[in-house]
Every structure is written in C-alpha cells, then in structure tokens.
C-alpha cells in the first residue's frame, strides 16, 4: 500500500493522480477540515481517504497500517508573520512523527522539501544540492520550517530510514488555479505594471510528481535532489504569460527599494484585514536576486527530461482565461 500525505494540496494531488494512472490502489491522508481536490474526483474509487494530521501520531500510525511506501507532501504554508512559529512547529513536529513511524515500520519515504532549504550559492555559481541554508541568518519562517523538517529526515536516515528528499523550485501547473504559484499568472492577467530583475527556477507539477515516483521506484537512498525545469528571469516569465493571455506585459522595473515599500504595505494591510499579505519580506527580496539551479544530479540519477516551461505556461494561461470567462 502507498500513502500520500498532503494529497489535498497542489503537489500531493498530482502525485496521487499519477500513481492512480499507473494502476496503483493508494491511500491518501487529509485533515478533517480539508476538501477533496477537483483533480482527484474522477479517481475516487481508486483512492482510500483517511483523516490523519501529521501532528496526531496515533491517527498517523493508523494511516500507516499496511503501508510500504510514503510520499510526504504535507506542509503548513503561510505568509503571515503571526503564523511563523506555528508553521515551523507544525511542519517539523509532523515530519518527525512520520520519520519515527516509518523508520520503525521499515517504510520507504520520498520527502518533499524545497529549494528554500537549499540556500544560496556564491556569486556566479549555480545552486546545487551541496549548498545548505544558513539557519543562523535566515528569518523566513517557511524556509526555516523546510530546513528543520529536512533535518528530521536526515536524522531518520542516520538512524536507518530508507528515504530520498526532493527540493523543487517554484511549482506551476493548471491545477493550482489562482492559489500559490497561480497568483503569479492571475496578477499578470489582471494587469501587472512592474517586473523585477531577479531570476528563479520553475518546474511543471507533473514533472515533480514523476521525478518523485521515479526516485521512489529506484534503489537510491540518503540523497537530496533539486527538481527544476528551467531557470527564468521574472521579466521573461511575465512577458511570456502576458503574451499568452493577450494582455500588456509589465514594462517598469521595480527596484529593490520599491519592493521593500510593497512588502511593508502588504504586511500592514494583512495585519488590518487578517488576510495573507500579497507579498512578504522574503519574497520581495528574492524577486531581485538571481538564483540559477543546477539539475544535473536528478537528470543523471533517473535520466529525466523536463517538460519545456513554455508548454506549462500555455496550459496555465488557457485554464485561467477559461475560468475568468465563466
């Protein structure tokens, strides 16, 4: 039996769908308050849903009954400063619970981390799996939670856990809708005026799911892999999205000081309304930073060829345009 945690989320749902399409009968965990994703509704007879929060060790133990493989896609994600401590505590403790139970039962794990836990490379170099985030200087709650959660998996590996870690870049795909990375597309569609000088990695959600499955089915253990389709300048990405949606592309450069004003304003508005800020301090600074990722390790490990990001962009734009026209 295969268990997918976080299967109501963007990536988890894609992993579950891919497993079902390959003929697997799977079990998916969800929180009591979670709604089943539209993406998985056509496959409801192929999926056994269980209610199990990773923070609830007893419920998690029941969910793992008869399980031999786990894809861990569950995570608490928030841009709210007030959620920082809870996000770190939840993600780290939940991962620790899963690691301990899987290690005890001899269950193989593919754990979803993030490039947020990888950190930076020296100027002029590509970022590889050998780089690590410096916890003494990092202040972003999400990055810290991903790093410390990954450390729990490394602890488990040192204790005998059979596991692999994946570090995806920004995951995009039509099933995201206007949430998460879908906000980038929706913002451009509504008329984004500014672009930034930064560069970042982007990857199709289907590619991430397929890489995770290929790693699970391999004999690889005790390794981490950056999962990245292409490195794109934000300006180039915004222009391509705008062209696909037949809207005007951003034409004004947002300088670092302007991004600082933006995140401070968003933070203030979020505090007043209780909503997630449109941009936080970390995102604002990252938007002007050039980050180029090396994907040679994953390509050599499983021989994977990533889908062109332009194809994914077209799919996402078409889905959001159709949704907006309803």
Automatic annotation (TrEMBL):
GO CC terms: cytoplasm
One Pfam assignment: Epimerase
Domain NAD-dependent epimerase/dehydratase: 2-226
Gene Ontology MF term list: aldehyde dehydrogenase (NAD+) activity
Name of the protein this chain belongs to: SDR family NAD(P)-dependent oxidoreductase
Organism: Mucilaginibacter achroorhodeus
